[in-house]
Amino acid sequence: MAQVLVVTSGKGGVGKTTSTAALGAALAREGAKVVVIDFDVGLRNLDLVLGAERRVVFDLINVINGVAKLPQALIRDKRMETLYLLPASQTRDKDALTEEGVAKVIEELRTNFDWIICDSPAGIERGATMAMRYADAAIIVTNPEVSSVRDSDRIIGLLDSKTVKAERGERVDKHLLITRYHSSRAARGEMLSINDVLEILSIPLLGIIPESQEVLRASNVGSPVTLNSPASVPARAYFDATRRLKGENIPVQIPSEAGGIFNKLFGRKAA
Amino acid sequence: MNLFTLFRRGSAPVARERLQILLAHERVACSHPDLLGILREEILAVIGRHVSFEPDKVQIKMDRGKSVSTLAVDIEIPNLERLSGVIAA
């Protein structure tokens, strides 16, 4: 049974695309068939983060408009043979993202993939609402910082009202992924703590990704951090998040940016 | 700010408190968009039934606090003497 996930946040620059690539690759590494879809029409970047920018021929809008068939637009990752990318269009026509068109694409993908991960653009405009429209579950990417938390709260409200599942009276499962976390700053009271964010947003925690040079390095070379340096602290945090996504109940650890992991187990139940 | 924040020093507790207050209001506002607009319209309709005033001379303010919010309605009403004079004429 295919799972449709949306990776969303409201605010830009918090790590949606990086997390989509890292989680997609982590799921594919375990043999699942995964497709990641870029919904950021006009400002696509998932292709770049995955190192597939020179292989884009057709895109999501082409498929919706009937210019290309879905298999023609899907790009298979060179490292992971079960990981595919459906890129966004670089033309600015985001109105081309029609509800029916997106529904058709998702339906077709559901028959062929285990995981369909929709990388949402920032904001609450069409691209973002279409990315979440057909989601079964959502990953809300949040930085421990006031504007990001506020925007995440807004997005949670939209997930509860504007998705097909919500309109049917069902719930979209929500998972909080805290990224760019500095444990030392939080310990000094300079940054919102994990508990602060959890208390304010009150959705289950999927994982904590520390601020790390490895994440930047992975983007620089166009390879998800979970493939590029699988033993690194952020990659391990993404692998743990992946296992929680699949329903495993493993405790969340608070990673430290120094490289090691505080063996302080987190008291809260994971997502 | 309280004793706790003083001891903990950093600015995170301030961030947390500001967010809690803000989001409490935004959650209500999003489920009930334009609450202030609706209140304004209905309050003015009731008052307008009994006295006449100029819509421009009305001020409505909502002050949001942590546990209580206040709604202030300030309406400038022309003096009744002048008003009755106008009616008599």
Walk me through the structure.
The complex is a heterodimer of chains A (271) and B (89). Chain A is an alpha/beta fold and 271 residues long. Chain A has 13 helices and ten strands. In chain A, a hairpin with a 5-residue loop joins strand 9 (253-255) and strand 10. Chain B is of the alpha+beta class. Helix content of chain B is 55%, strand content 16%. Chain B has four helices and two strands, in the order H-H-H-E-E-H. Chain B has a two-stranded antiparallel sheet with strand order 1-2. The model of chain B has no long low-confidence stretch (mean pLDDT 77). Classes of the chains: A alpha/beta (271), B alpha+beta (89).
Number of helices of chain A: 13
N- to C-terminal separation of chain A? 20 Å
- Radius of gyration computed on alpha carbons of chain A: 17 Å
Number of strands of chain B: 2
Overall residue-averaged pLDDT value of chain A? 93
Largest interface: A-B, 16 and 17 residues
Structural class of chain B: alpha+beta
How far apart, in Å, are the first and last alpha carbons of chain B? 60 Å
The largest sheet of chain B has its strands arranged as: 1-2
Uncertain regions spanning at least 5 consecutive residues of chain A: 258-271
Number of strands of chain A: 10
| Strand order, sheet with most strands of chain A | 3-4-2-5-1-6-7-8
Please identify the structural class of chain A as seen in this structure.
Answer: alpha/beta
The helix/strand series of chain A, from N terminus to C terminus, equals EHEHHHEEHEHEHHEHHEHHHEE
* Low confidence ranges of chain B: none
**Helical amount of chain A:** 25-40%
Percent of residues in beta strands of chain B: 15-25%
Tell me what portion of residues of chain A adopts beta-strand conformation.
15-25%
